[in-house]
């Protein structure tokens, strides 16, 4: 079977599997669309509350049902570099809406937390569930039923997936996502990683570490490595929720402002009041999600999306699975080398040809569904462009460059870096897990070594400081799943395990937790399902048991007799300390309701 036919077959099976839930979802969507512009049926008291703070012109416009009203859902705060630029966006959007003959209102704000700030801290245990809170907050903002379309201002890790879930829950409304763009290039990512390892080894102090980190994260915009935040931006463009060429334009530039204005006007142009109605829930379908997964593999994107994409798809009644993601990986080559899968950052990727070049290469190879709908119009081919600033301050689009500006960063299809995307499902007597191999050297993709068992990353870090890790071993870090403690990222382990690996030892990680979207060179079987607290076999591994992590054949096993393993009592650690402090008390319900990682780890199910 060719790659093209394989992708068609995978899409068909997703469509068939999803048919019952998708049909229910679309039926509800059509029912909502059939109600028309709902401001017209609001009582006078309802409507007066809805536009009480508006200018007289906007009040007059919103009193009827002929002028489109654009809802703005924003994740602005000025602590996070990626979201700080959104401070000025509502004013730009309102002005652009007025120029287009419409109105825009800030419908609501959603929280935006930064995993980079909370790594290794109690606050990280709120991170995954913040996605569901964001979806719920977006729903509250839109529940006033005042809007004909919505724009979503978000960038980072859980924010965009949460906003997509919210947008698809309100799928009867058109939705345009507006990014803020990456910060300019700072300290090279490999140099940052080098300083982190020196600090972990005690060879440099905190002052040197903070200086390096501050030179890396130095201004407004998204962090420049290719983690979950920038994977989000790639996804929004290749799935047709961004305008063409919008993802990786730096904040604070005239082009970024022009793209924001254009996005607002485009959102108003695709409401039910015009002749190009594009409700998000119909526009985004199984083909859109397959395109997103293909883009994830072609760019070596974040492992977090093996959870988020499943939850996002479920919001539209689409049943996407880990096996679908893994099988697509087998048929999509890696075309980008961006840190941690290379030395370049996203600015280098964008300069080499960026999304326009990537989408064209994948389309020409037949690996993307070209016949999808997007916010820009029919078909994905219009996204094979580069956005520039025209003389009059508007957006000018030109064909993406025919040749990559740097083939070490962005390769043409015939010169792919490797034949597969590098995300794979592992299965065995420990359950199922995800592994990302695009940054793992081939000789490290099969690790068989004795287990060292830890009930948290602090225990592992203490063992490292005590000099106990200078050996071949598989680190088993358990009770880190969604039900145990909210499934925090274990990014702090990357540096420690990297140091041990660089000393010449065979090292791997097996965990029911998550790793950062920036994780790379350590073979890591993550998201192990079932998790330890639900009786998963990862909880029954003992120190010294031989564990095999084989990303070549897709096996994850502890080499212990099945009867002996089953007879071992499941450990029952005291996890009460995960239930309080830093707001964790408020998330007990989320932990209790959380689905398994391979079902999206959400606290609520599909909208259908």
UniProtKB/TrEMBL annotation:
Sequence positions that bind [4Fe-4S] cluster:
156, 223
GO MF, one annotated term: metal ion binding
| Gene Ontology process terms (BP) | D-gluconate metabolic process; Entner-Doudoroff pathway through 6-phosphogluconate
Protein's pathway: Carbohydrate metabolism; Entner-Doudoroff pathway
Q: Which residues form the Dihydroxy-acid/6-phosphogluconate dehydratase N-terminal domain?
A: 69-380
Question: In its UniProt entry, what is this protein called?
Answer: Phosphogluconate dehydratase
Cofactor comment: Binds 1 [4Fe-4S] cluster.
InterPro entries, alphabetized: 6-phosphgluc_deHydtase (IPR004786), Dihydro-acid_dehy_C (IPR042096), DiOHA_6PGluconate_deHydtase_CS (IPR020558), ILV_EDD_C (IPR056740), ILV_EDD_N (IPR000581), IlvD/EDD_N (IPR037237)
Q: Which cofactors go with this protein?
A: [4Fe-4S] cluster
Question: What's this chain's function?
Answer: Catalyzes the dehydration of 6-phospho-D-gluconate to 2-dehydro-3-deoxy-6-phospho-D-gluconate.
Q: Which gene encodes it?
A: edd
Give the organism, scientific name.
Aquibium carbonis
Asked whether the UniProt record includes Iron among its keywords, one would answer: yes
Pull one GO CC term from this UniProt entry. Answer: cytosol
The Enzyme Commission number assigned here is: 4.2.1.12
**Family in the record:** Belongs to the IlvD/Edd family.
